[in-house]
C-alpha cells in the first residue's frame, strides 16, 4: 500500500510537468492549428531562465585575498556578489537562495517575448502549409534553440537549488498513519504539484471567465465565423501563443530544482508530451491535463521492481503501450472532439 | 591527304603499356615506404583526436581536447614542457616525434558509437592520422578500438571505465591508460568497510549499457566479498532524466546503501533525486543510510553541487594528488601548472589521462624509432614508467591495461573554492587493484596480433 501511494505521489509531479507542457501544446494547436515541436525547447528555456537569474544574482567582482592561495599558488581571487554587497550579507543571501521562485517574475516577460518572436517571426509563415512542414520547421527551431543554450551554458547539467526551506522532505506516511520514514516526499515536488495545479486553474479560468477567453474559445470552435463578426482573431491567437510559451516556461523554471537543467531536457519531455496530447485528445485542454497526470502516474508504477520483474523493460514502453490501447479503443483520444485533424 | 599511323587499338595498347610503366615504380615505392597505414612522409605527422564535442559528455570532450592541444604544444617544444620534464623516459626532446612536427585533426564522437567510428574513419582515410585517441564512453571506446584494429592504426583510449575495453573487447592495437570498473571495486571495498562496516545491504541502480553492467558486477563482487548483501540491482535507461520512480522503491527495500552506477548527467540527476527523497537523512537497520558513486569526476561533482558532499567514489587521478600525497605522484604539479596557466583552471582526470596517452604514444614511437603500429605495440607492451602523475605505472602486455594506484575520493564538506569539490580519502596501491589477465570479469576476448594495415 505504502509503495502504491509513493508511486502515485511520484507520478503527480512528473504528470504536472507533462500536463503543463501538453496544455501549452494544445492551446497552440487548438488556436493556431500548428503542431509545435519547439514546445519542449520553451520548457527548457524556462528552466534556463532560473539558471540565468541565479547567475545574474550571483554576479560579482573579484578581490585578491593575499592570505589565501589558489590552485597554482598565486594569491586567491575571492568572488563577492553585488547583491550581497548592496543588500547586506543576510538579505543578499536570502535573495540568491530564493532565485528560483523569483525567476518566475523574470521568466514571464522573457517567455512571452520569445513566444511572440517565434510566432510572428517564423511560425505564422507556415499556417497554410501542411502539418509535416510545420513539424519540420518547429523541430528544426527546437534544435537551434537547444544548440544556442548549449553554446552559452555548456553540455553538463547546472545545479539550481530550491530555497533552503523547501530542501527537506515531508514524511507523508505519518500523516496517513503509516510508520515514519515509509512514505517520504520532497517538499519542492509538493510545491511543484501545487504550482502546476494553480497554473492549470488560472489558464482554465482565463479562458472560461474573461471576454478574451470567450473569444479565443469561439475562435477555436469556428474561426471563420468569429472573423466574420469583425473580431481580429489572429491577434488574439498570437497572444495565446505567448501565453502558451509562458506556461511551458514556468513549468521549466519550477522544474529546475527537481532535475538540474541541461540543454537536452526539452527533447526528453517533448515526445512524451505529444503522446499526452494525443491520448488526451487533440485540441482538448481538459484531456491534455487528465492524460498528463494519468501517464505520469502510470510511468511511475511501471518502474516499480515488482512490475519490472514481471514485464522487463515495461517502464520504457508503458506510455506508448497505453497510447496504442487508448487510440485503438477511442481513436479521438480520451476527450477528443469530432473534426479535429480529420479534414 | 595525310594518313595517320595511329589506330584506335594501337592507341589503347600504347596507353595501357605506358600507364603500367608509369605506375610500376610508384607501386614499388609505395610498397617499400608504407608498410603500414598512413606512414608519415613529409616533415609532419598527424594525430587524430576523437572526442565528444557535442552531446551529453561535451564538457569532458572539451577538457580532453585542451589536454591534447597542450600535449602537442609540449611535444613540438612550446610552452613549459609540462610533464616532459618529469616523465621517466627521456627520449622526448621537444622536436616533435622522430623529428617530425606534430599536427592534429579533431573529430566529434557525439558520444555515439556510429558517429565516433565515422569520424575516426574520416580522420584515418582523409586526414592520414597515424594514431587515434580520445573519447568519453566505453561504448565509443570499444567501437573505435575495433575500427583502429581493422584499419591498422594505434588507438590510445581516453576516458573509458568498462572492464570490456581491455577485457572481452581488447585489441592488439588498442591501449588504455584509464582505470577500470574492477579496479574501482577493489579500491573502494576496504574503504567502504572501514567507513560503513561489513554488515550492509546494498541497492544498485545501474545504467543499462556495457559500462554500467561491468561496474555493477565489479562493485557487487567486491562488496559481497566484504560480507555485504545485494538487495536489488535495477537497470535504468541511459536516456532517463528523472530517477524518482527508481529511487522511491529504495526507501522500503530494507537496503541501507544505495550504489549509483551512473555517470555524467545520469549520475547528477539520480543523486539529486536520492538526496531530495531524504535518503541521506534516513536511518535503516539502525545505521545511517549511505550513497556510493563508484566512478567520480570533478565535472560530475560540479554538476551535482551540494548533493555530492560526503559521498564516496573512486578516481583515476586528481589535480591535488602530488600536494597531498607526496612526490610519488610527481608530474601532477607540472601538468597542473602548464594546464592551469594556459586555461585558468585545474585539469580534470579526463584531461590527465588524455595528455598522458599522447605522451606515451610519442615516447613509444621514439623508442621504437618507427611509426609502424607493430613497433609501437612492442614498445608499449610491458612498458614501466613514472612521472606522469599517477606514480609508477605498468602497461601490461597481456591486455594493454595500465596498472597504477587508484584514488578513493569523497565530496568535500567545505570546499574552499570551486575547484576543490573532491577530497582524497585514500590512495589504493596498484598491487591491490591488480588482477590476473584471465580473471573471469575480463575473460572471453582475444588481443590478437597487431595490424599494421596498408
Automatic annotation (TrEMBL), chain A:
The chain crosses the membrane at residues 16-35, 42-64, 98-123, 190-216, 237-258, 270-298, 310-328. It is a multi-pass membrane protein. Keywords: Amino-acid transport, Cell membrane, Membrane, Transmembrane, Transmembrane helix, Transport. It comes from the Bacteria. It is found in: Cell membrane. InterPro entries: ABC_transp_permease (IPR001851), BCAA_transport_permease (IPR052157). Its main location: membrane. Belongs to the binding-protein-dependent transport system permease family. LivHM subfamily. PANTHER family: ABC TRANSPORTER ATP-BINDING PROTEIN (PTHR11795:SF442), BRANCHED-CHAIN AMINO ACID TRANSPORT SYSTEM PERMEASE PROTEIN LIVH (PTHR11795). This is Branched-chain amino acid ABC transporter permease. It comes from Sedimentitalea xiamensis. The lineage of its organism: Bacteria, Pseudomonadati, Pseudomonadota, Alphaproteobacteria, Rhodobacterales.
Automatic annotation (TrEMBL), chain B:
The keyword Signal applies. Residues 45-410 form the Leucine-binding protein domain. SUPFAM superfamilies: Periplasmic binding protein-like I. It holds the Pfam family Peripla_BP_6. It comes from the Bacteria. Keywords: Amino-acid transport, Signal, Transport. Residues 1-35 form the signal peptide. InterPro entries: BCAA_transport (IPR051010), Leu-bd (IPR028081), Peripla_BP_I (IPR028082), TAT_signal (IPR006311). PROSITE patterns: TAT. The keyword Phosphoprotein does not apply. Belongs to the leucine-binding protein family. PANTHER family: LEUCINE-SPECIFIC-BINDING PROTEIN (PTHR30483), PERIPLASMIC BINDING PROTEIN OF ABC TRANSPORTER FOR NATURAL AMINO ACIDS (PTHR30483:SF6). This is Substrate-binding protein. It comes from Sedimentitalea xiamensis. The lineage of its organism: Bacteria, Pseudomonadati, Pseudomonadota, Alphaproteobacteria, Rhodobacterales.
Amino acid at each position: 500500500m505504502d509503495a502504491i501511494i509513493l508511486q502515485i505521489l511520484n507520478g503527480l509531479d512528473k504528470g504536472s510537468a507533462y500536463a503543463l507542457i501538453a496544455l501549452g501544446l494544445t492551446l497552440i494547436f487548438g488556436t493556431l492549428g500548428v503542431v509545435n515541436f519547439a514546445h519542449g525547447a520553451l520548457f527548457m528555456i524556462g528552466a534556463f531562465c532560473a539558471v540565468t537569474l541565479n547567475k545574474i544574482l550571483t554576479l560579482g567582482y573579484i578581490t585578491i585575498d593575499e592570505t589565501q592561495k589558489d590552485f597554482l599558488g598565486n594569491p586567491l581571487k575571492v568572488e563577492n556578489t553585488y547583491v550581497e554587497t548592496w543588500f547586506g550579507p543576510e538579505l543578499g543571501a536570502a535573495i540568491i537562495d530564493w532565485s528560483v521562485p523569483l525567476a518566475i517574475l523574470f521568466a514571464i516577460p522573457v517567455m512571452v517575448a520569445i513566444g511572440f518572436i517565434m510566432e510572428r517571426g517564423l511560425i505564422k509563415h507556415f499556417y497554410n502549409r501542411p502539418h509535416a512542414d510545420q513539424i519540420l520547421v518547429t523541430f528544426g527551431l527546437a534544435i537551434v534553440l537547444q544548440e544556442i543554450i548549449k553554446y552559452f551554458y555548456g553540455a553538463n547539467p547546472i545545479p539550481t537549488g530550491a530555497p533552503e526551506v523547501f530542501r527537506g522532505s515531508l514524511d507523508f506516511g505519518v500523516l496517513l498513519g503509516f510508520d515514519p520514514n515509509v512514505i517520504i516526499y520532497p517538499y519542492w515536488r509538493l510545491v511543484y504539484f501545487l504550482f502546476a495545479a494553480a497554473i492549470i486553474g488560472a489558464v482554465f479560468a482565463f479562458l472560461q471567465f474573461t471576454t478574451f477567453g470567450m473569444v479565443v474559445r469561439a475562435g477555436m470552435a469556428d474561426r471563420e465565423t468569429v472573423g466574420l463578426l469583425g473580431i481580429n482573431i489572429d491577434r488574439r491567437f498570437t497572444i495565446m501563443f505567448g501565453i502558451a510559451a509562458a506556461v511551458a516556461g514556468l513549468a521549466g523554471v519550477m522544474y529546475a530544482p527537481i532535475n538540474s537543467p541541461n540543454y537536452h531536457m526539452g527533447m526528453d519531455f517533448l515526445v512524451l508530451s505529444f503522446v499526452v496530447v494525443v491520448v488526451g485528445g487533440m485540441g482538448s485542454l481538459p484531456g491534455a491535463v487528465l492524460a498528463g497526470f494519468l501517464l505520469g502516474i502510470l510511468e511511475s508504477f511501471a518502474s516499480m521492481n515488482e512490475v519490472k520483474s514481471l514485464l522487463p523493460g515495461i517502464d520504457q514502453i508503458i506510455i506508448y503501450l497505453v497510447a496504442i490501447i487508448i487510440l485503438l479503443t477511442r481513436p479521438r483520444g480520451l476527450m477528443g472532439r469530432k473534426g479535429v485533424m480529420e479534414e | 591527304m595525310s594518313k595517320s599511323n595511329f589506330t584506335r587499338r594501337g592507341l589503347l595498347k600504347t596507353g595501357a603499356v605506358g600507364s603500367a610503366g608509369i605506375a610500376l615504380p610508384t607501386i614499388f615505392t609505395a610498397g617499400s615506404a608504407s608498410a603500414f597505414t598512413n606512414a608519415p612522409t613529409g616533415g609532419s605527422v598527424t594525430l587524430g583526436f576523437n572526442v565528444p564535442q557535442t552531446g551529453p559528455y561535451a564538457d569532458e570532450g572539451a577538457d580532453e581536447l585542451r589536454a591534447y592541444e597542450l600535449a602537442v604544444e609540449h611535444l613540438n617544444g612550446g610552452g613549459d614542457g609540462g610533464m616532459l620534464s618529469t616523465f621517466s623516459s627521456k627520449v622526448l626532446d621537444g622536436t616533435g616525434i622522430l623529428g617530425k612536427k606534430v599536427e592534429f585533426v579533431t573529430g566529434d564522437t557525439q558520444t555515439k558509437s556510429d558517429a565516433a567510428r565515422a569520424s575516426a574513419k574520416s580522420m584515418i582515410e582523409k586526414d592520414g592520422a597515424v594514431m587515434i585517441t580520445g573519447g568519453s564512453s566505453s561504448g565509443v571506446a570499444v567501437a573505435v578500438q575495433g575500427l583502429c584494429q581493422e584499419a591498422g592504426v594505434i588507438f590510445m583510449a581516453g576516458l573509458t571505465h568498462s572492464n570490456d575495453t581491455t577485457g572481452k573487447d581488447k585489441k592488439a592495437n588498442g591501449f588504455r591508460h584509464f582505470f577500470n570498473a574492477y579496479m574501482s571495486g577493489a579500491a573502494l571495498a576496504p574503504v567502504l568497510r572501514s567507513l560503513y562496516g561489513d554488515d550492509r545491504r546494498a541497492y544498485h541502480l545501474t545504467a543499462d549499457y556495457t559500462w554500467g553492467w561491468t561496474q555493477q558486477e565489479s562493485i557487487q563482487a567486491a562488496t559481497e566479498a566484504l560480507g555485504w548483501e545485494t538487495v536489488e540491482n535495477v537497470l535504468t535507461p541511459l536516456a532517463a532524466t528523472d530517477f524518482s520512480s527508481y529511487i522511491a522503491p529504495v526507501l522500503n527495500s530494507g537496503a541501507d546503501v544505495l550504489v549509483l552506477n551512473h555517470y555524467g548527467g545520469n549520475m547528477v540527476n539520480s543523486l539529486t533525486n536520492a538526496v531530495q527523497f531524504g535518503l541521506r537523512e534516513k536511518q535503516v537497520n539502525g545505521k545511517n543510510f549511505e550513497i556510493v558513486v563508484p566512478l567520480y569526476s570533478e565535472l560530475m561533482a560540479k554538476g551535482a553541487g551540494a548533493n555530492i558532499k560526503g559521498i564516496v567514489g573512486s578516481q583515476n587521478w586528481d589535480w591535488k594528488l602530488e600536494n597531498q600525497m607526496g612526490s610519488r605522484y610527481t608530474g601532477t604539479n607540472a601538468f597542473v601548472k602548464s594546464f592551469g596557466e594556459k586555461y585558468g583552471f585545474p585539469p580534470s582526470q579526463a584531461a590527465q589521462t588524455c595528455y598522458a596517452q599522447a605522451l606515451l604514444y610519442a615516447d613509444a614511437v621514439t623508442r621504437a624509432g618507427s611509426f609502424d603500429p607493430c613497433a609501437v605495440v612492442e614498445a608499449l607492451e610491458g612498458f614501466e614508467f613514472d612521472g606522469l602523475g599517477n606514480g609508477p605505472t605498468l602497461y601490461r602486455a597481456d591486455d594493454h591495461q595500465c596498472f597504477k594506484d587508484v584514488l578513493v575520493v569523497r565530496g568535500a564538506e567545505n570546499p574552499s573554492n570551486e575547484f576543490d569539490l573532491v577530497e582524497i580519502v585514500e590512495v589504493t596501491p596498484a598491487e591491490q587493484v591488480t588482477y590476473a589477465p584471465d580473471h573471469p570479469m575480463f575473460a572471453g576476448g582475444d588481443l590478437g596480433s597487431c595490424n599494421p594495415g596498408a
